[in-house]
Batch of 2 targets.
Target 1
Amino acid sequence: MRTKITLILLAFVGSLNAQNPLLIPGTISGTEFDLTLQNGTYQFWDGVNTTTMGVNGPILGPTLIMDKGDEVDITVNNQLSDTTTIHWHGMHVSAENDGGPHTVILPGETWNPTFEVMDKAGTYWYHPHLHMKTNLHVSMGIAGFIIVRDDEEAALDLPRTYGVDDFPLAVQTKDFDENNQIVGSSNSDDVVMVNATIDANLDVPAQVVRFRLLNGTSQRVLNFGLSGNAPFYQIGSDGGLLSNAIELTRLELPPGARAEILIDFSNMQGQNMQLMSYASEFPNGIYGATYPGTMTFMELIGYNPNPINGADFNLMQFTVVAPNGNPVTTIPDDLVTVTPIPEASADTIRTLEFTPEAMGPNQLNGLFLINGVSYDMDVINITVPLDNIEIWSISNQTAIAHPFHIHDVQFFVLDRNGVAPPLSEQGRKDDILVKPQETVRFITQFSDFANDPVPYMYHCHMLVHEDGGMMGQFEVVDNTIGIDENAGNSMDVSLYPNPVSGMQATLGFPGKNTYLLSYEIYNTSGGLVASKTIDKKINALDIDLKGMNQGIYFLKVYTKDAVYFKKLIRK
Ligand code: C2O
Ligand code: CU
Ligand code: CU
């Protein structure tokens, strides 16, 4: 405990030397990515062992470098003693490849998503997403970067040599107990680290350097800035590059969000600079401010006192060294063409409202609801037609700001309480802070993926809130395939056992007899492997699986009213 407090104070006071070289995660590039989730031991402080979880190592995970247009093949081998999932945050992939809470990887098992990289060049990340354990698994150390490259980005004069003039910076805050072990779910996150390095220093060349910032904290909003209020330039948001570099002295990033920035260290050789969070500038009502609720009497257990709440504190230090071989020396002005979706093109407007489970002074310690309900794995909250353009209007009727994140898509923010967002938020985003009493509207289109056996998620990216049920599910449905159908909510149909190792599985319609016309079973390449006409009202039916090899299949169920899709795993 004592060691810990001393170190926090050092970080907090700020001007003292940072001493630990920044950990720079290794990389895997190409189209095949082998990831092993493992338990480990890591020394956040010299000589002090802390139990951790990591990917291909004891902490964090390798940076995956992917090219847009490539077909990637990922294996995720779970060597943890716990079930988990791995989600590709920000990437546009089908729901079954997305690694949400339904796509569990049991201990000892391997998950093998394959998909085409459709995203623009940008900074994405991966992390566990098991319902009610996301915070634990992320806090224990599982998180990694994904860098997507494309031709548009390659044509710009930007720093892009990983570990030389292009660095990922995952900022996290954690709580450690008196035995220096990570406390999984805590509001007392007083230890600041970047890439798992406390008091980190990075030697940077005296030229323009690119940083890929990730707010990888469980709950804390960060207000990035440099010591002395030196300017920096934002070039990218969650889903890729902006249209122009923006000169800034502050950049607010909520949990889960990313930004790419450039800092010009030319002529600074021999000097130091601090990357900071200017949290003293936050109004109350943001996790990170002096008080987490809008009213100072609203307590959050464990939040106060914490020296970094409402204070300006150092994240890490840069020490400027000699420039390297082929330096970028100017900040480009124009970047890429960003084409926001016009508001008038929206097909559907949806409203989502955040409320506390219980109003009143103790609300911060309770659960938060979206449209009055908590997450239920068996309920699809929203069904979106394929290719629909939608405006989601999110209003926050709670006393604390929540970062709203949606899977599958990148969106464009239309406005905050009717006012256009700052330039910083005018690029592609998947994560946006909604402050108390604020309504944020965004527009997006749900393209390419539909009728998956599992839904996508939307949720608060404060992981404690997400685990507490501040999450919902949506499915994207293509009504144009098959017979004249309404694609039904796949949760209305059950399939048991699944995975199945025997010769049959049972298809059921929980709670109601249903007129079943027929079913078809397809393999993953779309070939029909079985079909049967039934034509009667039933509650359950045994499906014959003879002759089907091990693997993944899709069951398409035609009833009088709807068509359902179910994934079937044959072991
Ligand atoms: Cu970064 Cu649904 O998560
Ligand atoms: Cu996500
Ligand atoms: Cu929240």
Target 2
Amino acid sequence: MRRKRDRGIQGTTERIDRMKILVTGGAGFIGSNFILYMLNKYRDYDIVNLDKLTYAGNPENLENAMNNKHYTFVKGDIADAGLVRGIMDKGIDAVVNFAAESHVDRSILEPASFIKTNILGTQVLLDIAREKHIARFVQISTDEVYGSLGSTGRFTETTPVQPNSPYSASKASADMVVLAYYRTFGMPVVITRTSNNYGPYQFPEKLLPLAITNIMEEKPVPIYGDGMYVRDWIFVTDNAEAIDMVLHSGKDGEVYNIGAGYESANLSLIKTVLRLMHKPESFITHVKDRPGHDRRYAMDPSKIMNELGWSPRTSIEHGLELTIDWYTANRKWWRRIKSGEYMTYYEKNYSVKGLRTH
Ligand code: NAD
Ligand code: DAU
């Protein structure tokens, strides 16, 4: 294996032309945006996308990459050690682990798959990455590991983790395992903790795509409880750029908070969406609250800004406009998801057999 710096890791000035990255969970929302961003930016990088294609994975998200000779898709589970070893045997320089069960409400209904994928799956990836001396392991984590804030203050990387949902507990556990592999084995790991992402290809179970698509269908927008729960919103491409910087220049064993600083209560965010879509506030319907609902998240991204030179490019208003435009132009994409047709669509239309196992 070549030395880390020869692989373009730690120090953008020393970046070389080629790198082979294993991206897991790349058929989901952030992973697919990240892959498209990377293939466009680094024309000679190779990307292998390992994705189980759960309900949240959609190969259609990567239609624009399918004919790119630098992109390979492998259907499978990150917890399948044999499969992961087979991929890493072919020479991987870095792993970026997006694969996860990601929806808080589902973790309240059925926690088991969250523990299995988010914790055990990460451990399998770590073990094989360690065995193969992979030069960089990027763990994609979340601000939710820090728990809930009061009306003031922001999460820094030294804020103690205090997760409240089965989802955030599984992500916090994975973070602890990742950091343990750095301290115990000296593995070259880095963790990104990001706030709420929004943008193209987000599955319409999450607040913003659910709201935008419901409004397009003239359906009500469900707001949990009083709607005064605050989230810190970041456009997905800004997150992709931050992850790229952490991948290349992040320091081993470090955590980097990523957030754009656009805090909003859910109610006012949805009012903004309704205004941008020229629809009345009567679409808003208050519904039963989420159990254990975290009141407020807010990120302090000073570390990644000061140490790696990252800053967000997309204002909330512009990001929302881009997102609404994308869902307007891609009605077929989300209608296939909402109807369930997407589960078989790709196989039927692209002659790819056996993509899904369930
Ligand atoms: P997503 O649910 O849209 O996508 C998850 C992807 O992982 C899907 O393609 C799914 O098929 C795949 N997957 C699930 N289990 C797998 C397994 N066992 N093996 C292989 N693939 C598997 O999620 P997302 O919103 O894109 O989030 C990606 C990552 O970013 C997650 O780790 C999540 O915790 C983290 N994150 C998300 C946000 C957000 O706002 N969406 C914010 C912070 C952090
Ligand atoms: O903060 C980062 C996290 O953001 C990620 O780690 C998670 O993977 C991602 O799913 C997201 O979690 P949230 O729970 O914050 O996202 P969600 O879109 O589910 O909800 C956003 C807020 O909107 C939250 O306060 C709950 C509320 N909500 C959500 C839905 C789906 C509603 O009021 N109504 C809804 O129908």
